[in-house]
Amino acid sequence: MSVRPITESEQRQAWGAPFTSWFVLFGASQGLLTHLRFNGATVQGTWMPNVTSRFTLPFFVLGGAAIGLAAGVKFFGDEGLRRL
């Protein structure tokens, strides 16, 4: 029995593309804004006003991107809503 290989576009669609990419971008941007608000900084000012902000910047940005990725795959991926 012959089985054709899965194409790249089918793999991307299984992950919920292009919506997952938009969710990752939105999560990372919200993580950056949360970092700025958490440290009392502004977009035009310095983004790392104290020592703690060196740890919160990657934590919030990568955490927001990870949450966006998980939400995109969960809602728009192939196996997403079947597991709820």
Total strands: 0
Q: Which term fits the overall shape?
A: elongated
Radius of gyration: 18 Å
Distance between the termini: 34 Å
Task: Count the DSSP helices.
Answer: 3
The chain-level mean pLDDT equals 88
Task: Describe the protein in words.
By secondary structure, this protein is mostly helical. It has one domain. It is elongated, with a radius of gyration of 18 Å. The mean pLDDT is 88.
Ordered list of secondary-structure elements with their pairings:
Layout: H1 8-14, H2 19-39, H3 53-76
What is this entry, summarized?
The chain is mostly helical. It has helices at residues 8-14, 19-39, 53-76.
List keywords for this structure.
3 helices, mainly alpha, about 60% helix, about 0% strand, about 80 residues, elongated
